[in-house]
Structure formats: structure tokens, C-alpha cells
Amino acid sequence: MSLRGGDPIDKLAVPSGTTVEEHDLVIDGDVLVGSQSTVEFGLRGRNVAIGERVSVGGDIEAEGDCRLDTWCSVDGNVLVGEDAYIGERVTVTGQLMVSGDLDIGDDVTIEEGFEANGWIVIRNPVPTLVFYFIVLSQLLRIGETDAADELATALADGDDVRDPLLVPRGAEISDDAWRVSTPATVGDDCRLHGNIRAESIRVGERNEVFGSLRAREGITVGADTVIHGDVTTRGGTVTVEAGARVLGDISAGDLVVHEDAEIDGTLRARGEMKLVQEVDREPSNTPSSESEDDEEASAGDEEETSDGDDSESETTEAESDGAAGATDENATPTADADAEAT
User: Where in this protein does the record put region Disordered (predicted)?
Assistant: First the structure.
């Protein structure tokens, strides 16, 4: 089966709640790093899977499983809560501590020794990405979608599904800059250090980024997010939502800024520049209330008019009754006079 095609990790995705603590990148979910990448942070997550020829500049702490593919290097310790899979020619400058089983390849260098509470098997494990995609691809090819879903659930250990940290192939992640050649997305409630360089950037809400944003295409800064730097795009659109603050300059092809956003620097746009304002909907309710009052007043007038008509009709009836009585009184003397004449 041919495995050629697009890279399975096609973007930099930072899940919600990710923080940079000292020199470690802390994630609630899984960590998946593409091959030939450089991550100068340490990594702390649930399950950690590192591709081929990846360099990690700190400790790796995995609550679940940890996979290090061939030719990886870790400048620190590797602490694994469950099972570990170490490919051939991996170098770890610190200790390797595994609570479960250890599956290790040939020519692995662990400078300060290793310890495993479970079984230790010396062989060459199948690389993580290759193994996962071979199995899933075969299941999907034969139409076993239910089995593929069960496998994905098993890989997640049955826990709640959390968005993983995805680092694409050839990325450079450090305290100075996050450089990728793909789109980049940042979730909500994150705290990141470093300038972000990507094809396009979308930052969620309530984030704080200690660095600038630069992209070839569009950039979106979510509500209540603070950017400690410039926001620059070559020809795309920069969108700054309500409550966001940019502590620097903004340069873009087109610019869309909410009226509640705060920009400390200058605004430059080669194309259109738009200011988004909130629409106050309260005045729209006033005419309806006035119309209701008018309807009530007109209804009251109709009732008064009908009452007046009733009183007028009663007065007319009374007058007609009086006139009839007067006619009868006048008619009586005439009859008496006729009798006397007779």
C-alpha cells in the first residue's frame, strides 16, 4: 500500500488552555509532532508522539504513552506514566522512567540509564505515524468505519476527546519564535511566548501572546486577546474583534477593527479599512411600545364613543317618550270638548 500523499499534519494547532511555564509547553491533551521539527521547549501532555528526526530541547512528561521515532533526540529526561516506544538510534541525555512496558529499538542512547516497571522488549517498533495511518487506512479502505471509530476511541484510552497539540513537519518552536509553513490556529485561554510566523493565523478568545503575529495571508485576533507585538500580513485581511488589544502596529492589505478593540500603535492598510460598530437594538423596541400605547388609547376612545352613542340614544328615546306623552295629554281635552258639543 502506498503511503504517499499530503502530510497528515497540515497545520499548527494549539489547543485551548495551552500555557508556556518556564521552559515547558503544557497541554491538557495529546501532543503530536511531525518529523524533522525542532521544539526547544519541554513537553507535558497526556500521550506524546514524536516523529522522525525531531529534536526536543527539554524534558518530556507523558501521563499516558510516549512514542519517540527513529533518530530523535531529547535534551532531558523522559517520564512516562504508561508504556513507552523508543525507536532505533534515539538519544536521551537524561533518564528514561517508564511506569508500564518499554518497547525499545537498537542503538538507543540513554545517558543516565532507564527503568521500567513492566516488560522490556528490545526491537525496532513501527514508527508512530506509520503504524496509526496504516491501520486506519486499511479499515477505511475496506469500509469498516465502525472499527476505525473504535480504534480511535481506544487510542484515546476511552477518555474525553481533547484537542491535541499538532506541530507540522519541519516546524521550529522556541521561546523566540514559532515558525511553520502551514496555517496556524490558537484556541482560547492560552498563554504563549514567542513570535508566530505562519501562512495564516487565527487566535481565539482570551489569549495572551508575548510576541508578534506575521503571516502571508489573513490574521484574526479574537475577542479579549492581548498581543504584545505587531500584527503584519503581506496581502491578507487583519481582523481585530471586540475587546482585543494589540500593543504594536498593524499592517495589512485590508483591515477590519471593532470599535471596542484597542490598538496602541499605528494602522496601515493598502486596501479597505472598516470600523465595526455594535448595533443598539433598544430604540427599535420604543416604536412598538408607542404603537401599543396608541392602540390602547384608540381602543379607549372607541369605548368612550360607544358609551356616548349609547347615552345619546337613551336621551333620544327619553325625548320621544316625553313627546308621545304630551301628545296624549293634548288629545284628551279635545275629546271632552266634542262630548260637550254633542
Answer: 268-342
Q: Cα separation of 238 and 13, whole Å?
A: 19
Could you give the CA distance from residue 312 to residue 306 in angstroms, rounded to a whole number?
Answer: 10
Report the C-alpha gap between 26 and 84 in whole angstroms. 19
Candidate from 92-101, 128-137, 162-171, 263-272 with smallest mean pLDDT: 128-137
What confidence category does residue 142 fall into, taking pLDDT thresholds of 50, 70 and 90? confident
| pTM given for the model | 0.71
Q: What is the pLDDT of residues 207-227, one digit of tens each?
A: 999 999 999 999 999 999 999
58: how many CB neighbours lie within 10 A of its CB? 20
Q: Identify the CA nearest to 57 among candidates 176, 166, 229, 169.
A: 176
Q: Integer distance in angstroms from the first to the last C-alpha of the chain? A: 141
Phi and psi at residue 277, in whole multiples of 5°? -120, 150
Report the C-alpha gap between 214 and 304 in whole angstroms. Answer: 73
Backbone angles phi, psi at 131, to 5 degrees: -60, -50
Q: How far apart are CA 296 and CA 271, in angstroms?
A: 53
For residue 322, give the 3-state DSSP assignment: helix
Q: Are 44 and 23 contacting, i.e. CB atoms less than 8 angstroms apart?
A: no
Burial class (CB in 10 A: 0-12, 13-18, 19+), 134: middle
State the DSSP code for 17: T
In DSSP notation, 209-263 reads EES-EEESS-EEE-TT-EESS-EEESSSEEEE-TT-EESS-EEESEEEEETT-EE
Question: Residue 135, exposed/middle/buried by CB under 10 A (0-12, 13-18, 19+)?
Answer: middle
Rounded to whole angstroms, the Cα distance separating 137 from 3 reads 9
